[in-house]
Design brief:
three-stranded antiparallel beta sheet; 12 helices; alpha/beta
Length: about 375
């Protein structure tokens, strides 16, 4: 029997690395996980308590496709309090993780064959979901000069080579941790509206910032789609819950798609997530630990001979150039895991053209583990 071409997308390499790390751990060897992009802590205590109440008191059947109203209202209040932006709860869609949000927004915003721009390096699932849906990813090579982010001049240069129908912009970004300033985001938003380019703003790492607060595209665009998630700042990766904020013209199309594709997001996760916004003290303490972990690595990497890396202003990643040691980052990561127990992700996951000389380090784990990993990396490279 045949296998459809849309099913022949590349794997997510970081998951392969995690499997290899878990196999090592199962064999009795120690592993320091700097490969996977998730907090090492579970959901906040009030979220767990809310989940237990929901199990005891709620039917936990299907919800509306857009999610339960109390959660959408809390999300609307979140935008008012954090960004000073007014959002009608009718524009908010609770989704099965941010991944479900990307699928819904891509299907509603683009036709098969449309060309969607995204930064390279960037989150590989963008590229792979686009391909699976019959869309064409147009990768914009970025580097330190633009903080690994798209800019209007870079977009204009890509348009000279062919039309651009959409742009995915992530701030803070995976794998670099870079943030687009409010002024730069407003400039990109204006350009996209003028050119008829649908902006998809990935804001799933909002709340994890170490310098300036990341801006939302909602402050500068009426046509952008915002994607967010409870996985990162809210430390709820396994609950598989995200959300979209939609422009008016996409509300009904996304609703119909959601009804047919997913029916609804997990009812238990939705009821629990209402309490997430009462956990900022606990969550901000986690962000403080990420800052400490980042600073450990920023001090240790140059001593180990790794001197070129992203600024890491947010999220919990550093994207580092190891080209002075290797031209094969996959083999570099394989050897590092085998010889030291430190798991990193090769850059090929994020940039198929140039990622052979880069690795991503995730510092969302325990500070003690990050310090041990930094020491082992230094010894390995010495």
């Amino acid at each position: 029997m045949k296998i459809a071409k849309r099913g022949r997308i590349p794997g997510f390499i970081v998951m392969d690395v995690m499997r290899a790390a878990n196999e090592r751990a199962a064999a009795g060897a120690d592993v320091l996980h700097l490969e996977i992009g998730q907090p090492s802590t579970g959901a906040p205590s009030k979220v767990l308590a809310a989940a237990k109440r929901a199990i005891d008191n709620e039917l936990l059947g299907y919800t509306e496709a857009f999610g339960i109203l109390p959660l959408r209202e809390r999300l609307a209040e979140h935008y008012r309090a954090r960004y000073g932006v007014s959002v009608d709860p009718a524009r908010i869609v609770v989704t099965p993780g941010s991944s479900g949000g990307f699928i819904l927004s891509f299907l509603a915003a683009f036709e098969p064959g449309d060309r969607v721009a995204l930064a390279a390096p960037g989150y590989p699932a963008y590229r792979n979901i686009l391909v699976a849906l019959g869309l064409e990813p147009v990768e914009i090579p970025t580097g330190p000069d633009s903080a690994y982010q798209p800019t209007v001049p870079l977009l204009r240069a890509m348009q000279e080579k062919g039309r651009i129908d959409g742009l995915i912009l992530a701030s803070p970004a995976n794998p670099t941790g870079s943030i687009v300033s409010a002024a730069a985001l407003a400039e990109i938003s204006r350009y996209c509206e003028e050119e008829g380019i649908r902006l998809i703003s990935d804001e799933i790492y909002h709340g994890i910032e170490f310098e300036a607060q990341a801006a939302t595209a909602l402050a500068s665009s009426t046509s952008a789609v915002v994607v967010n998630s409870f996985s990162k700042y809210f430390s709820m990766t396994g609950w598989r819950l995200g959300w979209l904020v939609l422009p008016e013209d996409m509300i009904r199309p996304v609703e119909c798609l959601g009804q047919n594709l997913f029916i609804s997001a997990s009812a238990l996760s939705q009821h629990a997530a209402v309490a997430a916004f009462d956990c900022t003290d606990e969550l901000d303490a986690l962000v403080a630990s990420y800052r400490r972990n980042r600073d450990i690595l920023l001090a240790a990497l140059p001593k180990a001979g790794i001197t070129e890396f992203s600024r890491a202003d947010g999220a919990f990643y550093i994207y580092a150039d190891v080209g002075c040691f290797t031209n094969d980052s996959a083999e570099f990561c394989r050897r590092l895991l085998a010889e030291t127990g430190v798991a990193l992700t090769p850059g090929m996951d994020f940039d198929p053209e140039r990622g052979n000389r880069f690795v991503r380090l995730s510092y969302a784990g325990a500070t003690e583990d990050v310090a041990k990993a930094a020491e082992r990396i230094g010894n390995f490279l010495a």
